[in-house]
Amino acid sequence: MAPSLRAAQQRLCMAFHESRFNTDMVDHEADGSTDNGIFQINSRQWCDDYRSSTRNLCHMHCSDLLTSNINDDIVCAMQIVQKPRGMGAWLAWRKHCEGHDLSQWVEGCNVGSR
């Protein structure tokens, strides 16, 4: 299987289980941080929430993750994936996608290994 196809399957599975593909979803965490957007990117490290000191490693405002244009969400998620935890940074991926057959996520898309 082509690496890009596998990556697409993993990201689609993760986004579904994190947000059900809801681009404006905000989940408030017990520590006061928020998980934002389709990929549920956390404000503690990855974006500026205007309320607390954050690392803002994606150099963006958390509100930018809540629009229907997910280009910036994808760029930030790609930065997260490049870190040592990779896709394992998302609990939903570890729980629902890792080690599972993910072919259903691209079924009918006329994609395949080449």
From TrEMBL:
Keyword hit for Disulfide bond: yes
UniProt keyword annotation of Disulfide bond present: yes
A GO molecular function held by the record: lysozyme activity
Domain of life according to the entry: Eukaryota
Record's catalysed reaction(s): Hydrolysis of (1->4)-beta-linkages between N-acetylmuramic acid and N-acetyl-D-glucosamine residues in a peptidoglycan and between N-acetyl-D-glucosamine residues in chitodextrins
One BP annotation, GO: defense response to bacterium
Entry protein name: Sperm acrosome membrane-associated protein 3
Species of provenance: Gopherus evgoodei (Goodes thornscrub tortoise)
